[in-house]
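Deliverable D5.2: sample structural annotation.
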Amino acid sequence: MNAPAALLAVRWLVWDTFRQAQASAIFWAMLVVSGLCIALCATVSTPGLPLTPAGETPWRVPVGDKADPKKAEARDVEEVDGEIRLLFGAVKVKWYKYREDAVRLLQLVLAAGIADVGGLLLALIWTAGFLPGFLEPAAATVLLAKPAPRWSLLAGKYIGVLCLVLFQASVFIGGTWLALACRTGVWDARYLLAVPLLLLHFAVFYSFSCLLAVWTRSTIVSIFGSLLFWAACWGMNYGRHAHLYYSPDVAAGLSGGLELGYWILPKPADLLYALGQAVGAHDDLPAHAELAALEAKGWLSLPASALSSLVFAAAMLAAAAYELTHADY
């Protein structure tokens, strides 16, 4: 088959993946979750929280017993005392920073907590059955695409799933950004960078799911294998950083399996830290101080982490394509 015909097969498979996804209840459930989060953002208000002054940002000091008002006035420190209100004021949280900080914190919770962790795991579970069912010898889609190269079957399904995740992430991030901006007046477009970062995170781990699907043709193995692999990568990633951080006498290049495993495997903790930096709220991440210290010492490089994770994804897809090419149907 020539290249244009193969690309046509890939395009058809991408569309077929969308059609298959729309028949799934999870597709609509994820849209409902996005709608609920967007609706929640539409109830946010920030009374008493000023915008960050133009130019040099002054100190932000809590009022009351946490700061001396006279000293604050002498040092030209601006006091901020306001609230973050959710559900039209039903939930109130005291806040002593500027309005942008409050919005970035909410965006971090949405992007990192809901979309990156919860959304990623749900998407892995949801999409784990796409390839095993597609690769059944009796499946109509496989029979129709038999003349196409087998690698194009895998490419079409993989790209189709990524397009699905891109659509869901765009609805979630774009909708919550617009709702928060309209309610608070904070139009910080950095939050939109969460879309490509979420897609990158999913693409890396879905490549491993594809390999399991082609190798075993089992949805159950693809689901549990992907989730266990994700947890193992988190342990390897954070374990390496914790070892470096709490052992300052250790050289930058760790010897042994820990450093080797860190560079070979995907790095979800690094990608989460990159997400926090993208939205400007990395200071609010629990492990910010640890990761920032490693980054300052040159022991953590986010571009290198992303690149090595992409190399891993490419290797998994190449292995899956090889297995599919030599599989007996």
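Annotation notes: The chain has two domains: 3-41+99-326, 53-97. The chain has a mean pLDDT of 83.
The annotation will be released with the project's public dataset once the embargo ends.
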